[in-house]
Write a structure and sequence with these properties.
- The chain contains two helices and two strands; from the N terminus they run ββαα.
- The chain is mainly alpha-helical and 74 residues long.
- The radius of gyration is 13 Å and the shape is globular.
Length: 74
């Protein structure tokens, strides 16, 4: 089985993995690469519009998510 990850406030990032743990680990590298591309292309990321997990679970698009996690970026 494959697992996909959605990073709701950063569109265009689609990490995957054979396990949930692999998918979360892929999220780190996928998000890093995506943010680097955005920086190079001078595409802004509006950090004032980031939503909390509570806000996201209240929306129909994400109410049935299998799990939630926070990705630490270094």
């Amino acid at each position: 089985m494959n697992y996909g990850v959605v990073i709701p406030d950063v569109p265009g990032v689609f990490p995957v993995g054979d396990t949930i743990e692999d998918a979360i680990e892929d999220s780190k590298s996928a998000l890093t690469a995506h943010l680097e591309c955005m920086k190079n292309e001078r595409i802004p990321l509006d950090l004032t519009k980031l939503r909390s997990i509570e806000d996201l679970t209240a929306t129909p698009d994400f109410s049935d998510a299998l799990c939630w996690t926070i990705i630490e970026m270094g």
